[in-house]
Design goal:
Blueprint (H helix, E strand, L loop, with lengths): L1 E5 L4 H12 L3 E6 L14 E4 L5 H11 L3 E4 L6 H6 L1 H21 L4 E7 L22 H20 L3 E6 L1 E3 L15 H9 L6 E4 L11 E2 L1 E3 H13 L4 E5 L5 E2 H12 L5 E4 L8 E2 L4 H7 L8 H14 L9
Parallel strand pairs: 1-2, 1-4, 2-3, 4-5, 5-6, 6-11, 7-10, 8-13, 9-14
Antiparallel strand pairs: 9-12
Helix pairs in contact: 1-7, 2-4, 4-5, 6-8, 6-10, 8-10
The protein binds nicotinamide-adenine-dinucleotide (NAD).
Length: about 325
C-alpha cells in the first residue's frame, strides 16, 4: 500500500508517517513546511515540498504517484489566531483543501482520512460527547474543519470519493523519534513541560472556578501513537463517516500538573489567571463508534505514559526541530 501524508512534517503527521512505515506502508509526505519541519520527516519516506494551493502541481504529483490512500493533516490549527484572521483559516483549511479533493478525484479516488477536531461541537451540551451531538463550532478554526467534513460528505455522495473524518480531542505524547513542536505552542502538556525546561517563567492556569472536581477544565488526552493507529484502521476499513478519537477519560488541568510533577520529579511553577473566553468546562470524547466500526483499540491510554513520552522527547529536543515552522 502507498499512502500520501499531507502535513507529514507536522506533529501528528510525523508520528503517523513513522507508524505507517513501521507497518510496511510506502509513504509520500507532502508538506509546504509552513508549520512543519524537514527534520520531522521520517528518512524512510519520500518527501515533496508542496503547498495545497499549488493546484496543478498537486494534480501532477498524485497522477504520478497514484497513492492508494491519502491522510490529510495539512491545515492551520490555532483557535485564537482563527478568531483574529478567519480568512486565513477558510483559505487554507477549506479552499486549499478542496484542491486536494479535486486532485484525488481526478486520480483514482483513493480513500481520504481527514484530521477533524472536537472543536466542531463548540460548547457541547452533554459529556462524554457522541458523534450525534449538535455541530455548532464557536470559532473559525472549528467551522473550517466542519466545512471540510461537509465537502467530504458531498464528494462521497456525488462522486463516491470514500472518506473518514477523525475528530481528535487533545493529541499529546511522542514517539522516540518524533514529538510536538509548535510555534507558538498553545497546547497544555508541552507548555507545562516547557515551563520545567525554564523556557517559560510560570505556567498560566486559566480559571479555577469551573464546575469540575477541582475547579479547573477537564480535557481528554489521547496518545499520538494511538491516534496514528486509528488512521491506519480508517484507511484499511470500508467504513465511511465521522468519528471521535479520544481516550474517553477526562483529566483536569490540576491533574495534568500533578501527574507531570510525579513523572518528572520537578515542581511546576503555576500562575493562576482568570478564565479565558470560550473555554468549555469539560470536553471528553465517547469514542465507542471508532472502536466498534473502525476496529481501533487505544493501547497507551493513560496520562502518565503520555506525559512521560512527551518529557523524554522534549529533553532530547528542548528547542524542537531546527529550521522554520
Ligand atoms: N494537535 C492536536 O491536538 C489536534 C487536535 C485536533 C485536530 N488537529 C488537527 O490535526 C492536524 C495536525 O495537527 P498537528 O498538531 O500535527 O499540526 P502541525 O501544525 O504540527 O502540522 C500541520 C502540518 O500541515 C502543514 N500544512 C499546513 N498547511 C499546508 C498547506 N497548505 N500545504 C501543505 N502543507 C500544509 C504544515 O506545514 C504542518 O507540517 C491539523 O489539521 C489539526 O487541525 C490537531
Amino acid at each position: 500500500m502507498k499512502v500520501a501524508v499531507v502535513g507529514g512534517a507536522g506533529y501528528i503527521g510525523s508520528c503517523c508517517t513513522e507508524l505507517l512505515l513501521d507497518r510496511g506502508v510506502e509513504v509520500l509526505v507532502l508538506d509546504s513546511l509552513v508549520k512543519g519541519y524537514a527534520d520531522a520527516v521520517d528518512e524512510r519516506a519520500r518527501f515533496e515540498q508542496i503547498d495545497l494551493q499549488e493546484r496543478d502541481r498537486l494534480h501532477d504529483v498524485l497522477g504520478q504517484e497514484k497513492p492508494d490512500g491519502i491522510i490529510h493533516f495539512g491545515a492551520y490549527s490555532e483557535v485564537g489566531e482563527s478568531m483574529k484572521h478567519p480568512g486565513k483559516y477558510f483559505r487554507n483549511n477549506v479552499a486549499n483543501g478542496l484542491n486536494l479533493l479535486d486532485a484525488a478525484l481526478a486520480n483514482g479516488s483513493p480513500k481520504i482520512v481527514f484530521s477533524s477536531t472536537a472543536a466542531v461541537y463548540g460548547m457541547p451540551e452533554k459529556v462524554p460527547i457522541t458523534e450525534d451531538q449538535p455541530l455548532v463550532p464557536v470559532n473559525p478554526y472549528g467551522e473550517s474543519k466542519l466545512m471540510f467534513e461537509r465537502m467530504l460528505q458531498w464528494y462521497y455522495r456525488i462522486h463516491s470519493l470514500p472518506y473518514v473524518a477523525l475528530r481528535y480531542f487533545n493529541a499529546a505524547g511522542a514517539t522516540e523519534k518524533f514529538g510536538e513542536s509548535h510555534s507558538p505552542e498553545t497546547h497544555l502538556i508541552p507548555n507545562v513541560l516547557l515551563t520545567l525546561l525554564g523556557q517559560k517563567e510560570q505556567f498560566s492556569l486559566f480559571g479555577e472556578d469551573y464546575p469540575t472536581q477541582d475547579g479547573t477544565c477537564v480535557r481528554d488526552y489521547i496518545h499520538v501513537v494511538d491516534l496514528a493507529e486509528a488512521h491506519l484502521c480508517a484507511l484499511e476499513s470500508d467504513v465511511v463517516g465521522s468519528f471521535n478519537l479520544g481516550s474517553g477519560s477526562g483529566y483536569t488541568v490540576k491533574e495534568v500538573i500533578d501527574t507531570t510533577e510525579k513523572v518528572t520529579g520537578k515542581k511546576v511553577p503555576v500562575k493562576a489567571e482568570k478564565r479565558r473566553a470560550g473555554d468549555p468546562a469539560k470536553l471528553v470524547s465517547d469514542s465507542t463508534a471508532a472502536q466498534e466500526q473502525l476496529g481501533w483499540s487505544p493501547k497507551f491510554n493513560n496520562l502518565e505514559s503520555i506525559i512521560d513520552s512527551a518529557w523524554r522527547w522534549l529533553q532530547k529536543h528542548p528547542y524542537g526541530y531546527k529550521g522554520s515552522g
